[in-house]
Amino acid sequence: VCVWFSGPGLVCSIVRDITETQVAIAAGGSVGWVGLSLALLKISYLLPVALPLGLLATTTLASAVVERLRLNALLQQQVKQMWQTYEPDLVLRPLDTPEPLPSAGIAPSMQRVTQLAALADRFGRSQSTQAAIARSLSVGLVAADRDGLVWFCNPVAAEWLQIRVGGQLETQLTPTWLPLREWQEILAALEGQWQLNGTAKPPHSREREVNRGDRWFSLKFEPLTNDGASKAPISTSERRSLNGSISGLLLLIEDITKSKQFEANLDRQIHELQQMSQLKDEFLSTVSHELRTPLTNMKMAIQLLKISTAEQQRVHYLKILESECNREAELINDLLDLQRLEAGVQITQSEVIRLQEWLPPLIEPFYKRTEARQQTLAVKVARQLPSVVSDQPSLERIVAELVNNACKYTPPSGEIVVSAEWTPPHVELTVRNSGTEIPEHELSRIFERFYRVPQADPWKQGGTGLGLALVKKLIDRLGGTIAVKSGAGSTAFTIQLPLRREE
User: Fold this and answer.
1) Nearest to 182 by CA among 172, 193, 190, 174
2) pTM value surpassing 0.90
């Protein structure tokens, strides 16, 4: 009876053990029963125990086979699930593999084993291909697990972040690239949003722009999830178990310095265009006023001439007509000259200019004007000033325009000084006047076309804003420079011309 029930009892005792343990116990039992059988054979007692002995051996063998089949079925199920989950995401197709042997007993198992081998081969080759692609990119890629342990980084990311595989991503990012609080917020946002949308869409990426000295970088964070592309229908609970958590994160780092520079240039150009548009509007308003005012005055003078009988009045009105005509002609000439200079068609002719003889007569007409305004005008020319070679009409236009502006914006009892000095290798011409100062933030704009300094004309002298723009163009044409300084109750324009001495 003990022998009869020992087989099933042994099976029940080892059914939960692993296959190796079962085989060891079954082998030990078989060896023991063989020894017992030989002993019983000698005493002619084999027949009564033959049936229980066969039952024990058969049961043990059957349990081992059943366990092996159970493990094989579990392996097949796992291989099938992995195949359905990851097969669409692989980059490469498997190499041709030999067909399994056409044996009815082992064909299904061999097919699953072949699939598993092909899947492993494709995983390896896909991983190698993707790693090669990542290494050749011009952007940085870093992959880390949920604890921040880096398990992949391409050379670009390794250079920028000074990180390597096995390092901690948080250590390299904070605080040099991101504040610790911001880094924690990114992780919390990725984790929280995924748990919220686990059955719908993956969490959105998180992007940051970081300035590192003279370079700009874009940091883009993407979650790494267990998101398989299984074609087989699965339940909601199964999907959550597969896709319901983040296994890590992917960091994409891109150098966006050129993009930032382009944006800055674009913003600057837009700002300049807006300024030009504003200047254009102001110019149209100013020019229309400057054109209309002389015409109005000329009309009035003509009407008064018609009804005037006294010679003195007629002379007065003729002077008004002459002055307004000159004013109109000056505006038109400024516009035409500026247009010619910008088009590069202005012709210059160099000639010898002796500044000691040339400058005083040029300033002479302004004395009466300054006396009428109760201003003081002085000319200072250095004794050892050499003769120079330049375009005389252009130089006369430059100095006359600067002195004219000085007369306009110098108050009564103010002083205007025109000086010429030799500061090798340049000749310097300076026009300095006391009175209204130019704000420092306006100095860079006073040479723009049509630009007039706000609130810098308390005496309402008028003007189109073309004079200094014309001066700047003429000086550039002569190869010189102009600088302006304003402060301490005075303003000075200094011209430097690299003029040659007379041979």
Assistant:
1) 174
2) no
